[in-house]
Design goal:
The structure is a single chain. This protein is of the alpha/beta class. The protein has twelve helices and eight strands. An eight-stranded parallel beta barrel has the order 1-2-3-4-5-6-7-8, surrounded by seven helices. The protein is globular, with a radius of gyration of 17 Å. The two termini are 32 Å apart. 50% of the residues are buried. The mean pLDDT is 96. The structure holds zinc ion. The site of zinc ion (ZN) has 6 residues, from loops.
């Protein structure tokens, strides 16, 4: 089965989950939810993104969220991440002293243009500039649409491999293969990870899988048997898909850790504390919770 004793969970609800929620979530509520996730033992958490509020109004309070959470995380075994779309955002994240930034480049030229208004080449030119000034903050390169593009553009695995290698050469510390629209299937996940790891150290890889079509956990299982040890998920299964309103979102953290724990794979995350975060999400965030475990346990 090739199952490890332990994997890392990267909580992304405060960024990927919250960013498409229309009603503004109060800053203090975001902070409370993030604190619950930290208390649950999650080691990596993406807490916000430094995007222009014109594009993502929900993230307008990035600076306040980072300040509060940084204070709370002090001395705890947790690494804080913020997503940045460009160098302006990266500089803000570096100044704030975050542990990591996530820099997104799409493996689909049309999706990269639509998402960040740049060609892949332009995105890498900016990544090079960002890497040159990163100081102590580490960089995660998220390769969006690794498993498929919403505009039907073919995404050759060779391009994903080239992008991963190029990022690592520039000094990126982690490459996250993202199924941005939740279209991946287990056979494809096995094939793509299998090919990428022939040329990139699998320990430097992570996956960001969505459950849009109900294949999130099956894909997670295949990824772990292929050697991936770094998995992104969102409490309450928030996240949705900007191209499919109402669709299921990221894999719910509680479903993912339940699967790992039942297979004997440790995550270091306490289910009961994650449930506290889910309850808070239900109470404070105007977005449906899409989670098997929260239903089973009546959270
Ligand atoms: Zn996502």
């Amino acid at each position: 089965m090739n199952l490890p004793d332990r994997v890392d969970v990267v909580e992304v609800c405060p960024r990927d989950g919250f960013q498409i929620v229309k009603d503004f979530i109060r800053t203090e509520d975001k902070i409370e939810i993030i604190k619950k996730v930290i208390d649950a033992g999650v080691k990596f958490i993406e807490i916000t993104s430094y995007v222009h509020p014109k594009w993502v109004p929900q993230m307008a309070d990035a600076g306040d969220v980072v300040d509060a959470v940084k204070g709370y995380a002090e001395g705890k075994d947790v690494e804080l991440i913020a997503l940045v779309p460009n160098k302006v955002g990266a500089v803000k994240a570096f100044e704030a002293g975050l542990d990591w930034i996530t820099y997104v480049v799409s493996a689909s030229e049309s999706h990269n243009m639509k998402n960040i208004n740049r060609t892949i080449e332009q995105s890498f030119a900016e990544l090079e500039e960002i890497c040159a000034i990163k100081a102590d903050t580490r960089i995660r390169l998220a390769i969006a649409t690794t498993f498929g593009c919403p505009f039907g553009e073919e995404v050759p695995v060779e391009r994903v491999i080239d992008m991963a290698k190029r990022g690592l050469e520039l000094g990126v510390g982690k490459v996250v293969l993202a199924d941005t629209i939740g279209i991946a299937n287990p056979v494809q996940v096995k094939s793509i990870i299998g090919k990428v790891k022939e040329q990139v150290d699998v320990e430097l890889l992570g996956v960001h899988l969505h459950d849009t079509r109900g294949m999130g956990l099956a894909n997670t299982y295949v990824a772990v048997t292929e050697g991936i040890r770094y998995f992104e998920s969102a409490v309450g299964g928030l996240g949705g898909c900007p191209f499919a309103p109402g669709a299921a979102g990221n894999i719910a953290t509680e479903d993912m850790i339940n699967m790992f724990h039942s297979m004997g794979v440790e995550t270091g995350v306490a289910m009961d504390r994650i449930f506290e975060a889910v309850s808070l999400v239900r109470e404070k965030v105007n977005s449906p919770v899409v989670s098997h475990m929260a239903n089973v346990c009546r959270i």
